[in-house]
Write a structure and sequence with these properties.
Elements: H1 29-46, H2 48-54, E1 61-63, E2 73-79, E3 85-98, E4 102-104, E5 124-125, E6 127-133, E7 139-145, H3 146-159, E8 181-182
Parallel strand pairs: 4-8
Antiparallel strand pairs: 1-2, 2-3, 3-6, 4-5, 6-7
Bound molecules: nickel (II) ion.
């Protein structure tokens, strides 16, 4: 595999704090290529050999805004136990419902745009139903749970100019921990 040449914005870049715009269809050739490149990059970042070869940080989600493209889409490459990937391509997402139960990543969330360790809890819905569009503009409904639900919320935040670090109270990073389930 060849590593796509992606320039991922760093935390201090102001574009990461802006709200991305709805995507119109048909999807441009350039957006189609970006979606493909992002998925290849994320998969390679999760394959030990490739990650070491290219000195990558592992990630399984990426939003267009992280490449400076201010459009409402993101992808997720979820590695399964058999080492295959389940790819999600999510365009113009809307959360239609979510669980009362909250969860958080015990070891802390990570982001390819945040190149430092950040301690603390990011409360996330354990389950969600999301409406979105696929690459053809067709409406899709996705039901997500656990780590995939967290990844979706992390990426939807990106589309709204929010980084996970913004959701951690620096004065009390483990606030309300007892009200949530660790995953
Ligand atoms: Ni991120």
């Amino acid at each position: 595999m060849e590593l796509p040449n992606l320039k991922i914005l760093e935390e201090n870049d102001k574009r990461l704090r802006q709200i991305s715009k709805p995507v119109t269809f048909p999807l441009s050739a350039s957006d189609q290529k970006t979606i493909n490149d992002m998925l290849v990059y994320l998969q390679m970042s999760q394959i030990d050999e490739e990650r070491e070869k290219y000195n990558l940080r592992a990630g399984w989600g990426m939003s267009a805004v992280q490449l400076g493209i201010m459009k409402r889409y993101f992808v997720i490459a979820e590695e399964k136990e058999d080492k295959t990937f389940k790819n999600y391509i999510v365009i113009n997402p809307e959360i239609v419902s979510y669980s009362e139960e909250l969860i958080y990543v015990g070891e802390g969330e990570g982001c390819l745009s945040v190149n430092r360790d950040v301690k603390g809890i990011v409360p996330r819905y354990a389950r969600m139903t999301v409406k979105a569009q696929d690459m053809n503009g067709k409406e899709i409904t996705l039901r997500v749970r656990e780590d995939v639900s967290i990844a979706f919320q992390h990426e939807i935040d990106h589309l709204n100019g929010i980084l996970f670090v913004d959701r951690i109270d620096p004065k009390n990073p483990y606030k309300n921990q007892e009200k949530m389930r660790e995953i």
